[in-house]
């Protein structure tokens, strides 16, 4: 654990140094190909950094934050696009907005508060889930699939919500929430666009969806351009998740996760196209409870068939649970010394 912590500190210190270079040097270069070439070595380095870890948490978080979010933000920044523009007022702001999944809140409201009771309840459920893995060998397969989904969602909420709250205090600004009650989604568009991992949605919208849709408009009509935007965005998301999975397991991809995202992209694009038809708007109103059941059922079935099986086969979620419990014991031992 101590060796992993040292690696973690060194990796993130090096990331801060290279992001500082992007802040001081790259803006002096005209936006376009030459600025892109100036940030390209940093992007290449960020693709290598997750390989320095054997820990599931350190490799996956570094992959998401640096190999994924930071790289895409820097590429957009090279072409005067994305969340790094206008240029943040100081280096600390630039580092935080580059390396972490945060975004300035356009309309500040009470969502910026840290909801202690909700967080405590999620934390309680999370610890229950961690201890259920002790019985994973005897659990039915469908229960294990559900356990993986709950584990993943709770861990993301527990890690990202305090991070967002602390960074909002440090930076002195209101930040967008990372999740918006995804379990209440009443459509695939609602789930992926307005409720699940909102920072990822915002980055892919500006970095993939909008450029693909804009480029396609000159070749096909607007409806098909919109569909192509959904398809390519979900395809890129699937490939990125395969890359993160490789960082964690060092195994060749099975392409199940990519298929999961492509299928969701095709169905999301189809859903949006159908909802825009006059026939649907006038004659096929769907009750919210029905659309909620259809949405959750679709995600549960496709996730159970394509997304989570490789997590179970590789034992990745059990490794995450064991690492979490080991880290808690490690902290307890360190504090007991004092």
Question: Any key phrases for this structure?
Answer:
globular; single chain; 338 residues; 73% helix; 0% strand; 2 domains; mainly alpha
How would you characterize this protein structure?
- The chain is mainly alpha-helical and 338 residues long.
- It folds into two domains: 2-100; 110-328, no CATH class.
- The chain has 14 helices and no strands.
- It has helices spanning 2-24, 33-48, 56-78, 91-99, 116-132, 141-171, 188-194, 198-216, 222-249, 256-275, 278-283, 288-307, 309-314, 316-337.
- Helix 1 packs across helix 4 (91-99), helix 3 crosses helix 8 and helix 9 runs antiparallel to helix 10 (256-275).
- The two termini are 19 Å apart.
- The relative contact order is 0.09.
- It holds the Pfam family MBOAT_2.
- Its EC number is 2.3.1.75.
- It catalyses: a long chain fatty alcohol + a fatty acyl-CoA = a long-chain alcohol wax ester + CoA.
Percent of residues in helices: over 70%
Q: What share of residues are in beta strands? A: under 5%
Main sheet, how many strands, which sense, barrel? none
Give Rg in angstroms.
21 Å
Order of helices and strands: HHHHHHHHHHHHHH
How many helical elements? 14
Counted up, domains total 2
| SS class | mainly alpha
Quaternary structure of the protein: single chain
Ends distance = 19 Å
Shape: globular
Mean pLDDT: 89
Regions with pLDDT < 50 over 5+ consecutive residues? none
The tally of strands reads 0
Question: Brief description of this entry?
Answer:
The chain is mostly helical and 338 residues long. The protein is 73% helix and 0% strand. It is an enzyme of class 2 (transferase).
């Amino acid at each position: 654990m101590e060796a992993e912590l040292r690696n973690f500190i060194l990796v993130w210190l090096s990331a801060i140094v290279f992001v500082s270079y992007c802040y001081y040097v790259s803006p002096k270069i005209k936006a376009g190909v030459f600025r892109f070439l100036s940030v390209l070595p940093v992007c290449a380095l960020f693709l290598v950094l997750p390989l320095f870890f054997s820990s599931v948490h350190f490799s996956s978080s570094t992959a998401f934050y640096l190999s994924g979010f930071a790289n895409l933000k820097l590429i957009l920044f090279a072409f005067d696009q994305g969340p790094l523009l206008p240029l943040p007022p100081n280096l600390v702001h630039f580092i935080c907005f580059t390396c972490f999944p945060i975004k300035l809140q356009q309309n500040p409201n009470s969502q910026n508060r840290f909801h202690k009771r909700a967080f405590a309840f999620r934390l309680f459920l999370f610890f229950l889930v961690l201890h259920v893995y002790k019985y994973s060998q005897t659990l039915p397969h469908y229960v294990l699939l559900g356990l993986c989904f709950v584990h993943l969602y709770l861990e993301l909420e527990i890690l990202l919500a305090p991070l967002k709250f602390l960074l909002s205090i440090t930076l002195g600004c209101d930040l967008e929430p990372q999740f918006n009650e995804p379990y209440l989604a009443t459509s695939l568009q609602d789930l992926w666009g307005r409720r699940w991992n909102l920072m990822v949605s915002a980055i892919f919208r500006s970095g993939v969806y909008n450029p693909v849709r804009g480029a396609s408009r000159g070749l096909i009509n607007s409806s098909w351009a919109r569909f192509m935007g959904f398809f390519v965005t979900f395809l890129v998301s699937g490939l990125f998740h395969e890359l993160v999975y490789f960082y964690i397991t060092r195994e060749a991809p099975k392409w199940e996760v990519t298929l999961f995202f492509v299928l969701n992209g095709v169905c999301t694009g189809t859903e949006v196209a159908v909802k825009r038809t006059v026939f649907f708007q006038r004659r096929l109103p769907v009750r919210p409870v029905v659309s909620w059941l259809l949405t959750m059922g679709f995600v549960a079935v496709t996730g159970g068939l394509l997304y989570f099986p490789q997590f179970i086969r590789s034992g990745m979620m059990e490794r995450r649970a064991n690492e979490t419990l080991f880290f808690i014991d490690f902290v307890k031992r360190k504090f007991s010394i004092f």
